[in-house]
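Forwarding the complex inputs:
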Amino acid sequence: MSVFGDVSGILADLNEPQRRAVLHRDGPLLVLAGPGSGKTRVITRRAAHLVYTGVPARNILAITFTNKAADEMRRRIEALGVGRGMWVHTFHALGVRLLREFGPLARVQPGFTIYDENDSLRVIKQAMELAGVPETVLRPDRAAAEISRAKNRLETPAELAARADRFDEQAAARVYAAYEELLQQRNAVDFDDLLMRVALVLQEHPDIVERLNLRFRYLLIDEYQDTNHAQYLIAHHLSAHHRNICATGDPDQSIYGWRGADLNNILDFEKDYPDAVVVRLEQNYRSTGAILQAASRLIAANRRRKHKDLWTTGPVGEPVRLWRFDEGRAEAERIGATIAEWHARGRPYSDFAIFYRVNALSRGLEEALRARGIPYQIARGVEFYNRKEIKDTLAYLRVIVNPADELALRRILNTPPRGIGPKTIQRLLEVAGRTERPLLEILRRIREFPELQPATGKIESFLNLLDRIKAAAAGSITRAVGAVLELSGLEAALEEEREEGGEDRLANVQELVTAARRYEEEAEEPTLEEFLQRVALVSDQDAVDETAGAVMLMTLHAAKGLEFPVVFLVGLEQGLLPHENALREGLDIEEERRLCFVGLTRAREHLFVSYARERLVRGVRLPRAPSQFLGELGGDAVISEDFCEPWRPPARRWRESAEHPAPDQDGFVPLDDQLSEDERGMRLRRRRRTCESADEEDLNIIDAAREGLSETSPYADWRAGTLVQHEQYGIGQVVWIRPGGGQTRASIRFARYGEKTFILELSPIRKLERS
DNA sequence: TGGAGCGTAATTTTT
DNA sequence: TTACGCTCCA
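Prediction (whole assembly, three chains):
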């Protein structure tokens, strides 16, 4: 049965710490797994080992963050000849399953809808209207973030209100209350609810905790560093009795703090479980010695971490290359040229990946690649299930499954156009509000309301349409999807669009039919309800296909968990990485460093990091300063190459001196960004007086970004309290001012317009001079 | 009902 | 630069 034949086979190709993690049986276990240290292997082997030694597979629960990770883990465990019956889920999918079990305890009815972020934002806008909070007071996305934060901490609207001391927090609490009301009316939950409600049920029902502890006797949690408070509590409760919790993760790869992930969950694991066994996986099987050294040096600058010594028995390999350019375009073109060259020498395109901090940087790279005919794939946002035509189609099914889902109902009422315009919808909503009945019920009873008379015919044929789809849905899910497309007129509308030379969105909805068919074939007991709930949890992240034969472009966040033979990490500039918002808020610069660390450690053989001295930011050419991180990853594992044009005055070639060694025979020179903190400080002080060479300027900018405003900044003499004049808003007073990556941000309070934040370089603001 | 025109704002986004 | 949301007009 087993592919190994006997238990010892499971352990044969593991190193010592890996083996310890696999063999550990009962009690809490923390596996601190550095990048490329074979973490997934450990988890899957551990699961297999438990089964081999007598634990029924159904008693094991493995939790991941992404569907992709869950699928991968399931696949690998099954390949070991075990795994049938094992629970391998994302936190959210587990949430759905438990919510279905808990039902009313979690305030949900059968058929409940899961609102994704877009849906949720729409409902929040409606809630803001109900709560009387105008968008000028609180932006809907801010409200959404605030509510999400509260939910992650299990705070109710009342609790948020009690804690709120700022005006916008108060407003957010009121929106939160209205939002919850709407969700309840619509029998809907958002992503955060899938965690919060489960956590609350567990907190309030010890009997359920006990039952689940009996069902799941061993818990495996991956990427533990990314858990938020709700997830932490769920994990804690689910292992409260047996305490067989195995958490794997790496504090150095925690990059979702801004989404509520709490690094303390993993840092304090040993406090939560004083008897925890801790295993460190420090041997790296992925990267060359040079890459590892650079990454290790960088991350060593962080304080909030668990120390690990990453090492490899593999070759040191090529040094990491640090490229400097005059302009972002040159950076993109150099990368394009390198890929073309290497590809001509036999490397497949799929060996290459380009990472950036913000999506906006992808454009220049795309252009450069396209110009050379290099195939590339962007691991982002053409999110299948977020496409309008897909959401339209699914909305019909949502209404069938959950008649209370007003959001979906409103979406389809006039999609495709059938003469039920905003006016009619407005009236319908008024009646629904007045009578406090669900919208669908109003439609059904349309004849009772004289003011809705003009729309009666159209509404009734719409209801008739719904009924026919519902009849089809009783057959099969595939048929239900087909019925929606045919009967609603969506298909015809898309067909027409295609014939007129538009996008082939028809192909997308046909893909949905395929997805439905696949689901029906795979699921044990397929239901439309489950199909919709499953679809709601699919993300674009799942679509990342590393083997597509193309160069991969992605953000650093999307890169986590992946690896590539050749990696380019672009835009290592102050304000980009670290991002200006992290600098400005004085927030988590350490998270930015971890992000950089994640990027570096994706590379197997070759790693290029680059920055430009000027870049087009939102159409404006701005000077850029090299990232402070460049100074931290130095050492002999890194060599610098300067692609700046020699005749450009600010970008002179490196001068030859004791401090600036001549280029070696390969044309590389070390950049003195590689100096230690102390050395740099001293050197800066020594050299500031004679600012002569390009790198000095760069260093000065870094320095300025760290210490405050550059002396040469036109805003050097602006302070909090400085009076300024804005072209539009008139006279105002500076509340705070902070530089960052060639941009100076300031918040200014105007008498009439309140406080606003500006990028001074881009705004029509000048200092008010005393006259 | 849809499109043009204008103003505004601008990380990251496992689910 | 670009994307979105809003208003106004045909």
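The mean pLDDT of chain A is 84.
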